[in-house]
Design brief:
It is built from 13 helices and 14 strands. With 314 residues, the protein is of the alpha+beta class. Strand 10 and strand 11 form a beta hairpin. 35% of the residues are buried.
C-alpha cells in the first residue's frame, strides 16, 4: 500500500514511466557504470517487474523502482565529467522527495564499489553501504572462459565435448527479423518451470524478453541461435559494450549443455577482453554453474541507505 502511494507521489512530481520509449535516454548515460544492472538494456527490459519511473535532476538521470516485497529504491546515472552540479545536491533533492513520499529512508542501489567512497563522503547523513554476495556480478576474462584445459575447466570441457561431437547442432546470428523466435524457446523453457518461484527472483523473464525483442538492434546487440536439426533450441543475447567488456543479457537452452555451448560460441566470436554474466541471485544451481565456468572475478555492487543525522540538542 505504501509503495503504491509512493508510486503515485513520484508520478505526480514529474517522474515518467521507464520503458521502450526511455531506452535511448538511458543509453546516453551508460558509460557511467561498469555494472550490467545499470545498463539501458537491463533497466528497460525489466521495467515491467520494477514498475520503474525516471526523471532528470540537475543533469543526473534518476530512476525509482517498486519491485514487489523490496524497499523502494533509486538509481543515479551520471554522464562523464565535467558535471555542473554535485552529487550532494542530487542526494539532497532525492532525500527530500523520499521523505515527502513517506519512505523510511533514501535507498540508492547498483553503486559500483569504486564510487562508494564518494557516496560515503556526502554530508548530513548517516550512510549505510552494504552488498550481498548474491548480487555480485560474475566477470570472466574471455581467454579464461574459452580455456578448456586443467582441472578448473573439467566440467565445462566435459559438457562442451558432447556438443562438439554432435553434427546436428548449428549456429545462426539473430537479426532484427528473427529475434522473435527467441520467444518460442523461452515459452518451451517456461513450461517446465514454476512461474511464482521463477518470478520471485526479479520478475517474469518472458515479459522482460518481450521488451528486449522490441529494443533489439543488430547493429548494437549480438545474438546467436543454437539449432538442432535446423530447429531453434537455444539463444544468447549479449552486447559488446566497449573494447574492454561485453554483457550477457538473456540466454536459454532447452538442453543445459546447449546453453553452455551457446555461451562458448558467443565468447569465441567476441572481441572484448571481459564478459559480464551478471549475478546468481543466491540461486544454488545458478551459483554452481557460474563458479564452474573457469576462473572468474566478482564485481561488487552496493546499496547505500541515507538517513538524516539527528541534530544535537542545543
Amino acid at each position: 500500500m505504501q509503495d503504491q502511494k509512493a508510486y503515485h507521489f513520484f508520478q505526480d512530481h514529474g517522474f515518467l514511466p521507464l520503458g521502450k520509449s526511455s531506452y535511448p535516454l538511458f543509453k546516453e548515460y551508460e558509460p557511467y557504470s561498469e555494472l550490467q544492472e545499470m545498463s539501458a538494456v537491463m533497466l528497460t527490459a525489466w521495467s515491467a517487474a520494477s514498475r520503474g519511473l525516471y526523471t532528470i535532476i540537475l543533469g543526473h538521470l534518476c530512476g525509482v523502482y517498486f519491485y514487489e516485497h523490496k524497499p523502494v529504491s533509486f538509481t543515479i546515472h551520471r554522464k562523464p565529467e565535467p558535471r555542473e552540479y554535485s552529487l550532494q545536491k542530487v542526494i539532497d533533492i532525492l532525500y527530500g522527495l523520499s521523505q515527502e513520499a513517506e519512505l523510511p529512508f533514501l535507498c540508492v542501489k547498483f553503486i559500483d564499489e569504486g564510487y562508494v567512497p564518494e557516496f560515503q563522503a556526502l554530508e548530513g547523513y548517516d550512510i549505510s553501504p552494504e552488498f550481498s554476495r548474491d548480487n555480485c556480478e560474475y566477470v570472466y576474462k574471455n581467454a579464461d572462459f574459452l580455456d578448456l584445459t586443467g582441472k578448473i575447466n573439467a566440467m565445462k570441457r566435459r559438457r562442451l565435448n558432447t556438443c562438439f561431437k554432435d553434427p546436428s547442432i548449428t549456429f545462426q546470428p539473430i537479426t532484427n527479423k528473427t529475434i522473435g523466435l527467441c520467444l518460442s524457446i523461452q515459452e518451451a523453457w517456461c513450461e517446465k518451470k514454476d512461474c511464482l518461484q521463477c518470478a520471485s527472483y526479479c520478475g517474469c523473464e518472458k515479459e522482460a524478453l518481450n521488451i528486449m525483442i522490441d529494443i533489439f538492434d543488430e547493429n548494437i546487440h549480438k545474438g546467436l541461435f543454437l539449432r538442432v536439426d535446423h530447429i531453434p533450441r537455444g539463444y544468447i543475447i549479449s552486447e559488446p559494450v566497449s573494447k574492454k567488456r561485453s554483457c550477457l543479457y538473456f540466454g536459454k537452452g532447452l538442453n543445459h549443455n546447449h546453453y553452455l555451448y551457446g555461451l562458448y560460441m558467443t565468447a569465441q566470436s567476441d572481441n572484448a577482453d571481459y564478459f559480464n554474466f551478471n549475478e546468481d541471485m543466491g540461486s544454488e544451481g545458478l551459483r554452481q554453474f557460474k563458479t564452474h565456468l573457469g576462473r572468474y572475478s566478482l564485481l561488487n555492487k552496493y546499496i547505500c541507505r541515507f538517513k538524516k543525522k539527528e541534530k544535537p540538542d542545543p
